[in-house]
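Re: duplicated header lines in exported C-alpha cells

Our pipeline writes sequence and C-alpha cells for each protein into one text file. With two proteins the header for the second block appears twice in some exports. Here is an export where it did not happen, for reference. First protein block:
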Amino acid sequence: MVDNDLTVDEAKQSTQSVEIVMADAIPLPFVENVAQKPKGLFLSCGRGGHSWTGSLRVEIIGNPEAEEVLGPVVAKFAGRDDFSTSTREAQGDAIVDVRNEGGLWIVRYLREDGLVVIRSGSPCFHLPDDIWPGDHY
C-alpha cells in the first residue's frame, strides 16, 4: 500500500527516529559508538511507490550474549499495538525484525564483529517529481 500523504522528510525522520530508539535500548555498558548514516536510498516498493531506506551501526564492547544486546530492543517494542517483533537467526547472527504499519527495521547482532547493524525502511510513498529514485537523501 502506498501512503499518499507521507512526505520524503516525514518518511526519513520517522524511520531514523525508530533506529535511534533501538540503539538507545541497548545497555550502555555494551555501547562503544553509535553511527547513523545521514543519508539513505529509495527502493521501489510497488505501485509506483518508494521506501526510504537507511541504516545505523552500534559498536559493541565486551562480547555480550545476543539476548543481552537484542533482548532490550525486543522489550522496548513488545506489547505495543503499533509495532510487532519477531526473532530469528541467520548465518549464526541473532536478528530481530520490527515492523509497524508499512515500516521495517532489521536489527542484526554480528557478535564476532562486535556490531549491531540496523537496516530500516519507511512505509511506501510517492516521490515528488523533483527527486530521482537513485538519489541519496
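Second protein block, exported in the same file:
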Amino acid sequence: MESLEIILLDFKKSNLDQFIKKDLSIQTNQIRSSHFYDNSRGKDTEFQDITSFEEILSPKGTGNLFLSDLNLGHNFIDVMIVFSFDEQYGDITMNFPEEELYSGEKSETALKAEGLIRYIFDMMDKYEIKKVRVGYEPATDDDTCLVEINKETKNFNDIVTKLLG
C-alpha cells in the first residue's frame, strides 16, 4: 500500500496556530498519537497540551500527528501530519493511504480529487503558500510528484486531471 503526500512548502510559522486550530479544526477524539518536542521545557509534549504551535516549534522544531480522519476537502482516513519548521517558515506534510483518494467509482474519485484540490487552492490563498506538491511519498522527488501547484497555476481542471492521471 502506497501513501499519497501533500506538502505545503514554506508555510509561515506565524500562521500555524490559525491553520491548525481553525482550518484543520482537529478534535482530540481524532488523535491516535502525537509528538512534539518543547524546546523551552526540554521535553516531549502532546497535541492537546499545546497552547501555541508557533511557540512549541520555535526557534526551530518538528512535530507529528496521526489522526483517525481529517477533512481536506474530503474526509480522509489515517492521516499523518508532520510539521518541520525553521525560524520563520516550514513545511507541513500530510500523508494518507492512496486508496483514500483512488477507491470507488470514477465519479466518486473525481469528486474527492476536486475537493482536495479546491481545499489546497483555498489554503494557498488564505495563507500565502507559494508552492504545494502532491504525489506518492516522497512527493519531494520529481519522480513521485504527480502535481506541483504554485501561484501561477490557474487551471483547476488540469490539476485534477493530472492527479487522477
